Amino acid sequence: MTRRLLLGYLAVTVVVLLALELPLAFFYSQREEDRFTAAAEGDAVVLASYYEDVLDGGAPIDPSQAERFAERTGARVVVTDSNGISVLDTAAAVDRDFSTRPEVAQALRGERASGIRHSTTLNTDLLYVAVPIASGGSVHGMLRLTLDAHEVAERVHRFWLSLAAVAAVVLGAVGVIGWAVARSVTRPLRELQASARRFADGDLSVEPIPADSPEEIVALADAMGVMATRLDELLSAQRAFVGDASHQLRSPLTALRLRLENLAAELGESGQGAEVEAAIDETRRLSDLVSDLLKLARADQPPPAERTDVGVIATDRIDTWSAMADGADVALRLDRPEGAVWASVVPGSVEQILDNLLDNALAVSPAGGEVTVTLERAEDRVRLTVADQGPGLDDEHKVRALERFWRGGQATPGTGLGLPIALGLAEASGGGLSLADRPGGGLLVEVYLPRINQSVTLTGQAASRTK
């Protein structure tokens, strides 16, 4: 918008300059040529009157007057008789026939002739003026002056250059002033654009628009502010409902599960006991769903990120999940660099991310398989990967696995919220999460977190632990 306004200002300025300067330049050029021609014609008439009596009486030609004029002005003076044969020439021999020259023929007919033409011999522009030498209605000859018009051309050229310089200064001034004006005009629009970007990023805070903004922009900003406020209220209410409902459902679900377990113990191995066990499994799955919904609600409203040693957390979570890995006959290994691995993350997010990823990896890993957790430092981020040896996912399922409640089939255990929760926590920390194929088969989950550089010298050696 700013560039368009500036280009509009410059375009209008160029049109105005062309409309003013081009006529002025052509007028000045024509005026200079007319002045030069008029002066040359006056001199030619004076010289012609001097030689009028000489040609009329047939007396010898005195070249001194023409030679003094030629020496003073640099002009060439040619005088011919009525037949066009030169009787005086300040630059060449006489008795040459000039009757074939258009201006000479016109002057011998009793008319004046003048103009500017380019001389290829001298490689310059020449002004020629031819006037008849006549008395009593009879033409006795003609006088022609030729002058170098280079000086006039130079004056015209300098005038055009001065007009171009004025145009450049005006365009520069209009460009600077137009840029400032355009920026001031588009400033409210830029602020609205910044607000729209903040809304898209999830920040629904409303900032006041400058009071000097146009009425239309103020009205649009007010409408956007009302929209953002209502949307923030709706999202807050939705998050609060999910969090409160999840929290409130945990207690009755726990009580229901305990009663069903007591009932199952009383019924023993009877057919009704099997039905109760199935009900217990459903309450267990419902409890997991409620717990994941609570985590998801918290991930949508994370606290500010903090400086965290991801290496310490990864080591602690591997120790915690080792017992479950041993029970599933799966080797759990951690590869991490030596020393602290600092990152800017939401408090508690790394623990939840690892818990969700390890839970999924152990669930799909076959007996005798291996789950590898790798922690690496990159230039500006920390890379955390969890690789399993399960069946993996095709490209379509990799995309759908990050959607909420997608489980890949009714027979797949879980709530379908593990990966979306991990993705939300990674993004809340300013990072991201992606799925890829593990070399040799299986799934590779990559998590990127913002790295905090430290002045500690790291050896880059990996420490691993196999369970």
UniProtKB/TrEMBL annotation:
Q: Name one GO molecular function term.
A: phosphorelay sensor kinase activity
Query: What PROSITE patterns has UniProt attached to this entry?
Result: HAMP, HIS_KIN
- Top-level taxon of the source organism: Bacteria
Q: Which residues cross the membrane?
A: 6-28, 159-182
Q: How does it sit in the membrane?
A: Multi-pass membrane protein
- Species of origin reads Candidatus Neomicrothrix parvicella RN1
Keyword Transmembrane included in the entry's annotation:
yes
Q: What is its main location?
A: membrane
Q: Does the keyword Cell membrane apply?
A: yes
For this UniProt record, the keywords arranged alphabetically read as follows: Cell membrane, Kinase, Membrane, Phosphoprotein, Transferase, Transmembrane, Transmembrane helix, Two-component regulatory system
Q: Broadest EC class? A: transferase
Reactions catalysed, as given in the entry: ATP + protein L-histidine = ADP + protein N-phospho-L-histidine
Cellular component terms (Gene Ontology): plasma membrane
Q: Which residues are in the HAMP domain?
A: 183-236
Enumerate the Pfam families for this protein: HAMP (PF00672), HATPase_c (PF02518), HisKA (PF00512)
This protein's name? histidine kinase
